[in-house]
Write a structure and sequence with these properties.
Layout: E1 3-5, H1 6-13, H2 17-25, E2 32-33, E3 39-42, H3 43-52, E4 69-81, E5 85-92, E6 95-102, H4 103-109, E7 116-122, E8 125-129
Antiparallel strand pairs: 1-3, 2-3, 4-5, 4-7, 5-6, 7-8
Helix pairs in contact: 1-2
Length: 135
């Protein structure tokens, strides 16, 4: 299961490092210490927190132009697999994004709650991307 340093977790939640530290100190979200002595948050815990504490979806001003392709960075909050397909839910800031993909794709990407991913939205298709693992 992935864990996230405070800086990375704060970026995924769309808040400052200081805000996240205050939430940890206040007991809103749990953190542990890694082998290097840094505070980290378990990926599944971060996904649950993001899902339950998402802000409202901002309204789109009239006359706003958008690109045909949109990318939303977020956390996987749920993966439901059957023998052929997988349903993947991501919490991307205030947005909940759901993607249907082959089970093979979900397995190859290692998708599970707490994994950081990008939902690339083009028309009616949502493509989920993950960064290569760092060694």
């Amino acid at each position: 299961m992935p864990s996230y340093r405070i800086r990375d977790a704060a970026e995924l939640l769309g808040v400052s490092d200081d805000s996240l530290r205050r939430w940890i100190d206040g007991g809103r979200i749990a953190a542990t210490t890694d082998e290097s002595g840094r505070q980290v948050i378990d990926g599944a815990e971060l996904a649950r927190f993001a899902e339950h504490n998402a802000g409202p979806v901002p309204t789109t001003p009239t006359g706003l132009r958008e690109s045909a392709r949109n990318r939303f960075v977020g956390l996987v909050t749920r993966v439901v697999r059957d023998t052929v397909m997988a349903q993947v839910e991501l919490q991307c800031g205030p947005y909940r994004v759901v993607s249907l993909m082959s089970r093979e794709a979900a397995d190859d990407l290692g998708l599970e709650p707490g994994v950081s991913a990008i939902a690339a939205v083009k028309s009616t298709n949502v493509v989920v991307e993950v960064a290569e693992a760092r060694t």
